[in-house]
Amino acid sequence: MLSTERCTLCNLCESDFSDAVKLFTDEQVRKYLGGAISQEQAYDKLYRWINNNEDLYFCVRFNLTNDFIGIVSVSPHHDSRTKELSYQFLPDWWGRGIAKETLRGMLAYLKGATDIEELLAETQSLNMRSCRLLENLGFEIFNTVQRFGAEQRIYKIIL
């Protein structure tokens, strides 16, 4: 478990699924992630995640109310050599600094509790909010690629 001023990150578990499915079926959340997927596909993905013992998948909840906010994960990047930080938050929580606070806490955790030295994050170039967030956290553009039918920015940070 990891805590920030306003949030708690716990290992994603099956009891989080009914909330987490909302991320995968929401058009706004999935706008730059290939579009919304069905509930069945979302549950399949979530089961694969919680049964994966090599990667990190955290449920993010608001401390005061225990409301579900989103998911933060660290798993292999497409290059299979480097770990990638990924995140999805429900739209009701956008614009409050929650993502920045949560990801900053995650970066500190990774630096102190893992042997990860370099971390990537990939986002569509058109997703300017995500690009600004990563840049504000200290990530720098490492590369751009065409993937999923759009230009992606690959950011890197040294922990």
Walkthrough of the structure:
The protein has 159 residues and is α+β, with helices and mostly antiparallel strands. It contains 4 helices and 8 strands, in the order ββααβββαβαββ. The protein has helices at 17-25, 39-50, 98-113, 128-136; strands spanning 2-3, 7-11, 56-62, 68-76, 83-89, 118-124, 140-147, 150-158. The protein has an 8-stranded mixed β-sheet with strand order 1-2-3-4-5-6-8-7, with helices on both faces. It starts with a strand and ends with a strand. The model has no long low-confidence stretch (mean pLDDT 95).
Care to give the gist of this entry?
By secondary structure, the chain is an alpha+beta fold. 29% of the residues lie in helices and 34% in strands.
- Cα-atom Rg, whole angstroms? 15 Å
* Unreliable parts: none
Give the mean pLDDT.
95
Secondary structure tally, helices: 4
Structural category is: alpha+beta
Run of helices and strands: EEHHEEEHEHEE
**Major sheet, described briefly?**
8 strands, mixed
Please state the overall shape, judged from the principal axes of the Cα atoms: globular
Task: Itemize the secondary structure elements and their pairings.
Layout: E1 2-3, E2 7-11, H1 17-25, H2 39-50, E3 56-62, E4 68-76, E5 83-89, H3 98-113, E6 118-124, H4 128-136, E7 140-147, E8 150-158
Parallel strand pairs: 5-6
Antiparallel strand pairs: 1-2, 2-3, 3-4, 4-5, 6-8, 7-8
Helix pairs in contact: 1-2
